[in-house]
Amino acid sequence: MIRLIIPFVLVVTGLWAWNLTTSAGHWSVYDQGLLLSGWLSIALLSLTMMLALRPAWLERPMGGLDKIYRTHKWAGILAVAFAAAHWLIEMGDDVIEAIFGGISRLDDLHYSGFIEAMRDAAEEVGEFAIYLLFAMVLITLWRKFPYRYWRYLHRAMPALFLLLAFHAAWLAPLDWWQQPIGWLMAALLAGGSLASVLSLAGRVGRRRQVQGKIVAINSPEPSITEVTLDLGRAWQGHRPGQFALVTFNRLEGSHPFTIASADSGNGRVTFLIKSLGDFTRNLAHKIDVGQPVTVEGPYGCFDFNRRNRKAHQIWIAGGIGVTPFLAWLEAASAAHQPAPEADLHYCTRNADRDPVVERLQALCRDYPGIKLQIHDSSKGESLSAEALSASESPGARAEVWFCGPAGLGQSLERGLRTAPLRLSRFHKEAFQFR
């Protein structure tokens, strides 16, 4: 996220600085602040819209679709912050005029009738759109707002972007379009507008969608639903650890679920779905065998083949986060691959009632190099960075693969970063796309 957003902001700011004039004074500071905040806002919104297309070619350099969507989210939030600054600066012109006198150079520009009319319209549209943008972000950050309603509100974002693009394009100084900053903004506005049109037309992810049906539904425990789908020959296969966007109900929309089975080549995939929200709660009673489904994917770079082969491997699964590790072990067994070596830590609320424990133990029996450790919270057993560090040799290089609750992942990563062991990398996925 940071490695894309910060360079992006620096590039836009640098090209804005290229166009700075030598004039000074209160109104010059006002004008340049208004331009910079507006440019940064619309540039980041353009980036947000283009990332929403789920570009597959960016997955590997950015570390997976989950990282792309996290960047999409924070670029949008930062864009709104700059939009708020832009709005506040615009609202402050009367105060500056009352204190210092004079007028903004931008307000002093006069154009022919048509251009002036379009600029007036762009200013009114921009003010209306920015209020809607503020409301959209507040609703997005309000976690209790139901996803199924938020999803429809979020689909209006492309139309909102087109209004803001109209505002930015017509109110930008005309001479800027002949400068590098203008060339960059023209490209970003074009890219963001194209992405918005594709999104409004329902074309996002269409090429990676496959139609299938449910062939089996099981409930190994009340809070988990195991669903097996038959996607036929249209499914191009997947790598262990990847996930897919699954649509059981068109009104509800798609949700990301990690694929819990290895690719068998017959178009069948299995998902272990934890009851975490309104839709997934009692999912087994909301779906039926034979029901059609839409699956988009696969996505993700949680791929054990990308491991650092010189580092000791530590696998950490929390609850339903065990699914990619099940797929890894099943794939290795089916392909008769050399036995991997890793410490596998599985954190569960109650090992005696958890059906995954027995499945994990059975898979690990075939691999002596996998040291399985069960951490049962009902017995007061918990996993900590200190315990992980103590089990490693001082100064040893380790690579961690984590899938589980975000809070646990953050705590372990913070602790391991300061531990004596040399942490090569901490792999984790972020499924909070909202």
UniProtKB/TrEMBL annotation:
**Annotated InterPro entries:** FAD-bd_8 (IPR013112), FAD-bd_FR_type (IPR017927), Fe3_Rdtase_TM_dom (IPR013130), FNR_nucleotide-bd (IPR039261), MRET (IPR050415), Riboflavin_synthase-like_b-brl (IPR017938)
- From the Swiss-Prot or TrEMBL record, what is one GO molecular function term? oxidoreductase activity
Primary residence = membrane
UniProt keywords (A-Z) are: 2Fe-2S, FAD, Flavoprotein, Iron, Iron-sulfur, Membrane, Metal-binding, Oxidoreductase, Transmembrane, Transmembrane helix
Top-level lineage group: Bacteria
The protein's name: Ferric reductase
Give the species.
Answer: Marinobacter profundi
Keyword field contains Protein biosynthesis: no
Q: Where in the cell is it found?
A: Membrane
List residues of the FAD-binding FR-type domain.
Answer: 197-305
What residue ranges are annotated as transmembrane? Answer: 33-53, 74-89, 128-145, 157-174, 180-201
Q: How does it sit in the membrane?
A: Multi-pass membrane protein
**Cofactor(s), by name:** FAD
Instruction: Report the GO terms under cellular component.
Output: membrane
Does the keyword section mention Zinc?
no
